[in-house]
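User: I'm curious whether this sequence folds into something compact or stays loose and floppy. Could you predict its structure so I can see for myself?
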Amino acid sequence: MVAGKDDVLGLLAFALGPEQLLAAFSRDLELEPEPADALSSGERDKRISELSDSLLSLERREEGLMRAAQDGIDVLRRGDADPRCVLGVTVIKAQAQVA
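Assistant: Here's the prediction. I'll summarize afterward.
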């Protein structure tokens, strides 16, 4: 039997009732205080950007190695390979024009 998340959620709402289901989700969503050494929002965004750039660079290198190894060999890509790396393109964000 294959069931999706909507089916499971519907079954839980039927079995528990909407109030109990809401209480269970609310209980799980209660936030714990942040640790003293937690990054600020700006620092976290900067770090995520740095890690994303590093990951893209590594994936481009991986794609280059795969292309070099394809001479006469059938090489399979990962299913989650970044399309920018597979296609060998760089996406440039357009700047808004002020009229």
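Summary: The radius of gyration is 23 Å. Residues 39 and 51 are 15 Å apart (CA to CA).
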